[in-house]
Design goal:
Shape: elongated
Number of helices: 3
Order of helices and strands: HHH
Number of strands: 0
Mean pLDDT: 83
Helix content: 55-70%
Low-confidence stretches: none
Largest sheet: none
């Protein structure tokens, strides 16, 4: 049986989401002035579009590569400059 190289795309995207999520969570909590609820709300605001677009890379074309446009949109969905 031949397997598509895109079969593990969800695992790759999951790793990216976890690493970016950890960075954004730490930054959001650090910048919240001790108000963890505000930090978590900021985290949610910053991550929502990034997560949605990255999940779509896997679900929109199962078994095949995502379009270049989708990849660029997902990569640009969050700003990590602090």
């Amino acid at each position: 049986m031949i397997h598509s190289p895109w079969r593990n795309c969800s695992a790759i995207q999951g790793t990216s989401l976890a690493l970016v999520g950890a960075y954004v969570l730490a930054d959001s909590l650090a910048g919240s002035g001790g108000d963890h609820r505000a930090g978590l709300e900021r985290y949610e605001q910053r991550m929502r579009e990034f997560v949605t677009l990255n999940q779509a890379l896997v679900t929109k074309n199962p078994g095949g590569p995502p379009s270049e446009e989708s990849v660029e949109r997902a990569k640009s969905a969050i700003d990590l400059d602090v």
